[in-house]
Amino acid sequence: MTINEIQDEIIEEFALFDDWADKYEYIIDMGKKLKGLPEDQKTEDNIIKGCQSRVWLNAHKDGENLVFEADSEAVIVKGLVSMLIRVLSGHSPKEIAESELYFIDQIGMSQHLAQTRSNGLVSMVKQMKNYAIAYQLV
Amino acid sequence: MTLTEIVDIQKIRADFPVLDQEINGKKLVYFDNAATTQKPIAVINALKHYYEFDNANIHRGIHTLAERATRDFEATREAVRKFLGAASTEEIIFTSGTTNGINLVASTYGRKFIKEGDEIIISGLEHHSNIVPWQMLCEEKGINLKVIPVNDRGELDMEVYDQLLSEKVKLVSVNHVSNALGTINPVKEIIAKAHAVGAVVMIDGAQATSHLDIDVQDLDADFYAFSAHKLYGPTGVGALYGKKALLEAMPPYMGGGEMIKEVTFEKTTYNELPYKFEAGTPNIADVVALKAALEYMDSIGRDKIAAHEDMLLQYATEQLLQIEGLRMIGEAKNKVSVASFVIEGIHPQDIGVLLDNLGVAVRTGHHCTQPLMKRFNILGTTRASFAVYNTIEEVDRLIAGLHRVKKMLA
Ligand SMILES: Cc1ncc(COP(=O)(O)O)c(C=O)c1O
Hints:
The complex is a heterodimer.
Chain A: H1 3-15, H2 20-33, E1 55-62, E2 65-72, H3 75-88, H4 93-98, H5 103-106, H6 109-112, H7 115-137
Antiparallel strand pairs in A: 1-2
Chain B: H1 9-14, E1 22-23, E2 26-27, E3 29-30, H2 41-54, H3 64-84, E4 92-95, H4 98-113, E5 119-123, H5 132-141, E6 144-148, H6 158-164, E7 169-175, H7 187-196, E8 200-204, H8 216-219, E9 223-227, E10 238-242, H9 244-249, E11 260-263, E12 268-270, H10 284-300, H11 302-321, E13 326-328, E14 338-343, H12 348-357, E15 360-361, E16 363-365, H13 370-375, E17 381-385, H14 392-409
Parallel strand pairs in B: 3-15, 5-6, 5-7, 7-8, 8-9
Antiparallel strand pairs in B: 1-2, 4-10, 9-10, 11-12, 13-14, 14-17, 16-17
Helix pairs in contact in B: 2-10, 3-10, 4-5, 11-14, 12-14
The structure holds pyridoxal-5'-phosphate.
Pyridoxal-5'-phosphate binds near residues 129, 130, 175, 204 and 227 of chain B.
């Protein structure tokens, strides 16, 4: 599936929820299911700045594609991070660098998260794209 | 415990227009009062009235508006003097808030009178505003910074304080009340002991002024700073109290208009107190409205406000402790209406996000007290802090919300 196909799939999943709690329960569930990172990879280098809680992001190449792994100590953030990974991980650096993320808005999450917190997500997306751009060059 | 009404809560709530709104379809519960309190209509009207009828620059014009603005500005100074129990209005300097007041003292008194090898004592309970200015001064001048540790209940360890005191200590700066835990510190004792070794004492009163009666002369504080926005007043204004003799000996903080007596290119002489420390056009409108905030508190009765908040804190603490896995952070014998807690296995941010969706506004995180969080070996807390307009029913909403949050995150 392309990045946009995955985004559309998530939007469809969220369309089934008619109240905020269902959405959050789904996100919390995804947060719990995300494997996360081993302690030795939760380094200063991997920390995303701008989050109220800490988020760690790691990237590596798998063949032609870029794979992301991430973790957070707060489960809701981890759920949102899990969705970002589902959307962006496993695609080519070019696709990732050129992608436009619209699903967060569409599932009503940017509006529910206060600015300081969504800024953390914004920095995470930025960091994922930075990795993609960097891997395009090598 | 008794739930009888100490204040006329419905009447008080009607004074705060912001409270009458829904968040995510639920009636707003505002429990972030230690960050800033909401403003009564009297304060909002004072601001509006000033701009509609009286706006002018002060101490300069001889026209009617300038006289009116100056009169109202100086009337607030007198109200603040009375509020703090200061001897004279010369000792009341308007600032932009607590942070500004502490920086003023560090930059003027600190730079002039504290030297290399001297010591400054702060405490483990401090807000970053009462840590960083002293660190900056210490770094610049080679001064040593000492810290009074905090015990498991969130109180200062006064035995260690006694040991830290010596002739080398030139200044002690501690908060009157901790913003993160609500602990009321024994500042009178802290001051007396510091004076015994010849040190001056700065008190960060940011969290104390909305809950306690303040009497700087009784405390014998050398400096006392507070912010209007934490006591139902406007943002961007506060005051610094300083003993006259100290303020006179201190160099000015900023240069500019208002703070001078005479300027020539050869030499400038400075204005008298308190104007020496008030360079430039001050925040006139907000200073004027601060008086309305002080009068508002007096109209309810400061003792009644405190009693109402204590009742809420007691009720909330009892209810919170019944939640499984919940631990209070800060169980000082003397504390104001701040309930800071952690719930086992749950990140405070998750609690904050979900409570917000339930219409309950709390603060989560480190509360600008990172060293204190480290002391308790936690990432942060969830903090509910109560003000005069909060109710038992709202505390019930918090408790029900926490049960729901726990279930959602389980
Ligand atoms: C104990 C304490 N000190 C200082 C400050 C800083 O106050 P302001 O930001 O109004 O200058 C605060 C505000 O949160 C505080 O709680």
